[in-house]
Amino acid sequence: MTARVPTVLAMRPDVAEAAFPDALRRRLDAVAEVDHTLVLTDFGDPRAALALARAEVLISGWGCPLVDAAVLDAAPNLRVVVHAAGTVKHHLSPDFWHRGLAASSAADANAYPVVQFTLSLILLAGKRALRMAHEYAAGEYKGRGTARDFGNVDRTVGVIGASRIGRLLLPLLVREGFRVLLSDPTLSDADAAGLVPAPHRVDLVPLDELLVRSDVVTVHAPELPETRHLLDARRLGLLRDGTILVNTARGSLIDTEALTRLCAAGRIDAYLDVTDPEPLPPGHPLFALPNVLVTPHLAGAMGTEVARLGEFAVAEVERFAAGLPLVGAVRASDLTRIA
């Protein structure tokens, strides 16, 4: 029998419990030597030293502390970090990448709940459900809307960024009958054409044109220095009256002050699962606006969905133990284009 790979868990204990139910723990135990009672949130914990000294695999998750030079020095046998969540940017330091270690992320498993949530928001927003709910509560409901700004037929959705989530969303949008515009400076027209099944099409256009032409704009670009306030006051001003803006990517992509002014004026509706800052301070004007919905970054895996992240991570450890390539491999060169 092949020796099991020494493995350490680093995440919040509640995350470990949700990500690795009994059946997954047994599956992990078949290939990994892991102490499920030791779930690290502090690499300085006295109990961590022995486990880190032996570890070849670190399974990280939400709440994992920074993996810096000191941690790497304490884990001389470490070969791979498998992240049972999305982005690895916040817990793998530059030292990790400089040492050439392997990393994997369950971002693919985390993506589909975000796609489902985003599509749901787009469909809900198209019915002007938020505005109608406020009117109903105030006794101002006048019956089913017949104005042209109601409904999801004959609508154009602009997708900013052909990210992992953006690419998964595109086929669902064309299936729902939307015209779809896409803005992504890394793509060619031929690239864009291959993102949805024939006979559907996606039109690749410059960002400013997308903003002018879209009834709904949904944001899926990565958080990078050059994408901070990608939607600034000038670009937000290009949106037509009644446009719906959906952001399930990162709050920093939108200038919050400019967005607040635009929404307060009633020019657009906004559905925001992410904000800048995050969380928004209590009493922020966006919370009180009848044309804005702010949710607490819940689009990604939650509750029963978290086990999907654990399942992906266990499968990666199984592949690593068998000497197979990692499906969710993340490389240093990827950091400039991923969330």
Automatic annotation (TrEMBL):
It comes from Catenulispora yoronensis. Transmembrane segments: none annotated. Residues 120-299 form the D-isomer specific 2-hydroxyacid dehydrogenase NAD-binding domain. This is Hydroxyacid dehydrogenase. InterPro entries: D-isomer_2-hydroxyacid_DH (IPR050223), D-isomer_DH_CS (IPR029753), D-isomer_DH_NAD-bd (IPR006140), NAD(P)-bd_dom_sf (IPR036291). PROSITE patterns: D_2_HYDROXYACID_DH_2, D_2_HYDROXYACID_DH_3. Keywords: NAD, Oxidoreductase.
